[in-house]
């Protein structure tokens, strides 16, 4: 009997396979889903793999074009985006994102007025092409462009459910000042770096009847009223203005205010009976602009169950209104701090006098400016408070100095310390 050939395998020898599964064998929807996680340029390059892959990229439901990430000249970026939108045609598009800042130094050395005008035209045509695919989400970050006019179709797109605009073009009202807004299915709107006057703001709110979430970031607020029947989430971050803004939103559940200086722009909660969660963070407070409207604002928080107060500006504000602060009978969870706790801890005890049904207290403690000088800061810890429902205290700290003293003061002023759970975490 001849010995077995070294290139043959006996029947008793187990079959061994060192090949990997063929990716092309996956169903087409799965392949398209995989491509949607790739950079657009890389997704297009898969067309060379085989005949089956040749046109798969044209069905990607999400496009994300970022000028910063594109490895090439601005001219190449413009050519690529234009061609990709052209060849994919009217294939269904769920999400279109375009991030392009004029004058990007690492790709263009001279952004003259003529070049900017050309790129403005390019950006507008790309947005129009995306709108023809009936997208659900459009996100535009186009800063530094002059004379930018967004296509009117952007503000009448019936398929849109989310729109993000970051334009940095406050002086040009035509950018975000359409004469007519009709976005019947829009549920989420994020606006950044824009000037919003009364006609623009009212036109947006009237033209978005299903709007649920509105976020304004670094905007100039030049309107006097925000009225919406369905809006449930309102976020205002680092905005400025010179008017009193009345908020009439019967369905508002969450209000998020960050780096928003009271006394500069005043918020008046006129009709917010559903409000249950409020986040307030002031880094500074202009005492000379204190008008008493801040007290009225806190009076409207009696329906709130979750309240978060952060920043030195909030501390200064509380010191001014604490004696007239209303009772927060519905408040269950309070988060308080982000300033040195050895500075007037009595302020916290005074605030707890107004939260009789509090169940959880979270304190975020920054490193004390002068450890050991609590007495010089006027901290006595002798202000009693009664939180009969208090079940848990959580201390978040960056430095352990004064933490145990803080817990001792809190427990000393509650009448059922044996039932309170204490938790600690460091950040």
UniProtKB/TrEMBL annotation:
Q: Which PROSITE patterns match?
A: FBOX (PS50181)
What Pfam families does its record include?
F-box, LRR_At5g56370
Q: Which residues form the F-box domain?
A: 20-68
User: What PANTHER family does the annotation carry?
Assistant: OS06G0556300 PROTEIN (PTHR34223:SF51), OS11G0201299 PROTEIN (PTHR34223)
Write down what this protein is called: F-box domain-containing protein
